[in-house]
Amino acid sequence: MGCIQDKCCGNYPKSEDGEKRELLSKYSGHGKHILTDRSLDIVQVPSHNFRLEYSVLTQRGYYPDTPGKDNQDSFCIRSHIQGNPNVHFFGVFDGHGQFGTECAKFVSDRLVEVLSSNSSLIDDPVKSYNAAFFRVNEELHDSEIDDTMSGTTAITVLVIGDKLYVANVGDSRAVVAVKEGNRILAEDLSHDQTPFRKDECERVKLCGARVLTVDQVEGLTDPGIQSWGDEETEGNDPPRLWVQNGMYPGTAFTRSVGDSTAEKIGVVAVPEVSTVQLTPENPFFVISSDGVFEFLSSQAVVNMVSKYSDPRDACSAIAGESYKLWLDHENRTDDITIIVVHVKDLPHLGTASPNGITGIIGSEESMKGKLSSNMYLTPSERSDMFQSVQSEPDVHSFQHPLGTV
C-alpha cells in the first residue's frame, strides 16, 4: 500500500468484462509450466560451493483511469559486489506519489553503489546497510527529484557467502522457503512496516502523526477507535499517517526513502535488518513489491514457487495469480515486481542446523543485547523470536546516528 496520492484510495471506474478477460488471459497460466521471455541467470558462490539461479519480472499495473501511468516499481540485481564472487545484491523498490517512478529508480541505482563503496561492507553489513540508507535518503532529498510527497519502499537482500542480510524499509517483502519433512513452509524475512504494527503505530504517534483511516479522517467512522485489526481484514481502508492539522500525506506505511513531508511525522528511512543462515533446507527465497502480497499470503507465494523448477515460470505464475486476485477485488491492479532466487547445491555440513533468523535490527543502538542465536529452534519458535526482537528505534531516528560514509 502506498500513499494517498496514487494507491488504494482512488475510485477506479469499472472496466468492461472484455478488458478484464483480456488482462487475465495475458497473465494467467493454465499449464504446469508457463513460457516467459524473462531471462534465467545463474551466479556461483564459490566460498560455499553452491549457486543461485534467479529470474525477475516487473509489470506495470492496470489503471483504466490513468492508462498512461508509469510502472513505479524498480529493481536492482548486482553480482560480484566489490569484485567479490561471494557477494550479490537483490532489491525491489516500490515508488509512490507523483514522482514515485523517479524516486524508485534513484534509490535502486544509488543504494547498491553506496553499499559497494563501503569498505566495511563485508565486516559489518548491518552498519553498512544503515549508513547506506541514511546517505541515499539524504541524497534523494538533495536531488532534483521532488520527494516532498513522493518516495519509495525498499526490500533488499545481500548475499554474503551462505548468509542473507535482508534490509527492509516499507511494506514490500522477502520470504524464504523452509523444508520441514514433506512440507515447504514460508518464513518471512521482513515484517511490513505499517500502522497495523503496534510498535510502528506508537512510534509515529510519538513523532506527531495522526493515525486514522480515510473514513475516520472524513468523519464517516469514529476517529477515537484506534484498533484496526489486521491487513487481511482491514486492507480496504487501512490506517494512514496524517499531519496534525491537514489531510496529508496519507501514507499507509511507516518507513520509506524520500517522503520529506512524512519524515517530519516519523516516516523514516531506517531499515530493519535480519540475518539468515542458509542451509540445504532453504530451496529458494522471494523478494517482491506489495502488489503481490496485497492478496497473496507468504505461504501462498511459497506454495506457487515450489511447483516450478524454473524461476521464470514461478514469476509468471505469481504475476498471473496476483493480477487475477486484484481484479476479483478491485477494478485495477497494482504494479508488481518479483525476484525468485533458487538456492542450488548448497552442501550439507556435518553440523548443519535448521534455518535460523538470527536477529532483526531497526537501529543499532536500540538492539544491543537483544540478539541471540535461534539456530536450533522450530519454525514456529523462530517466528516467535523474530516477532520478539522487532526494532525499537528512537522516535527521532531519521537523524541517523551513523552519519555518512
UniProtKB/TrEMBL annotation:
Cofactors, names only: Mn(2+); Mg(2+)
SUPFAM superfamilies tied to this protein: PP2C-like
GO function term, MF aspect, one: protein serine/threonine phosphatase activity
UniProt cross-references to InterPro entries, sorted A to Z: PP2C, PP2C_BS, PPM-type-like_dom_sf, PPM-type_phosphatase-like_dom
Enzyme Commission number(s) from the entry: 3.1.3.16
The name this protein goes by in its record: protein-serine/threonine phosphatase
Pfam families hit by this protein: PP2C (PF00481)
Domain PPM-type phosphatase, residue spans: 53-343
Catalytic activity field: O-phospho-L-threonyl-[protein] + H2O = L-threonyl-[protein] + phosphate; O-phospho-L-seryl-[protein] + H2O = L-seryl-[protein] + phosphate
Keywords linked to the UniProt accession: Hydrolase, Magnesium, Manganese, Metal-binding, Protein phosphatase
Keyword Hydrolase attributed: yes
Similarity section: Belongs to the PP2C family.
